[in-house]
Amino acid sequence: MTSLALSEPVPGPRGHFRLEVRRRGVLVEVDDHPNIIVNGARTQQARLIGGDVVGRSITQIGFGEGSGAADASNSGLTNAFKKALSGVTYPAWNSVQFAFTLGTGEGNGLSIIEFGLICNNDTLFARRVRTGALVKASDLSFSGTWTITYN
Predict the structure, then answer these.
(1) What are the backbone angles phi and psi of residue 83, rounded to the nearest 5°?
(2) Which ranges of 78-150 would DSSP assign to H, the alpha helix?
């Protein structure tokens, strides 16, 4: 039996997070960075392609207060406020993009440092950690996208 050797390893998915912060409707900050795809994503994908599809879709965005460094072993957010995603699009043949918002009346009082993409069975798929907290108040609103691309 002959084995096939790849000339280079096939990388896993990569994520890109973009957040726009508005104060009273005026853009005050843009956070545009890559993010960590966590181990829970690999479990979700393995089960999905094996036919176990229940609960595998990414359906929520989470906003949390955890300040620990992003790591592949992360499995949740600290003191998370979770909400449904605003939409899903496919900007290229090998990517999916999730849109999200956080309105002026949502998550107020949280010191938001971390963000997460969460499957509908509550599995964390991806995580982004900021260097500084955004203290959510009623004059702030967020909108953004989170893109997962397969190379």
Answers:
(1) -150, 160
(2) none
- The answer, yes or no, to whether residue 7 has pLDDT greater than 60, is no
Residue with tokens 């479990």: 43
* Phi, then psi, of 45 in degrees rounded to 5: -65, -40
Separation of alpha carbons 91 and 94, rounded Å: 8
Distances (CA, A) of 79 to 76, 107, 109, 110, 120: 9, 11, 11, 8, 18
Going edge to edge, which strands form the sheet with 95-102?
A: 81-84, 58-64, 111-119, 124-135, 26-37, 14-23, 140-149, 95-102, 87-92
- For residue 129, the one-letter residue type is V
Tens digit of each residue's pLDDT (9 = 90 or more) over 115-127 = 999 999 999 999 9
Q: Does the pLDDT of residue 2 top 90, yes or no?
A: no
List of residues 6+ apart from 3 with CB closer than 8 A: none
Does pLDDT of 128 surpass 60? yes
Burial class (CB in 10 A: 0-12, 13-18, 19+), 27: exposed
Structure token pair of residue 144:
């953004």
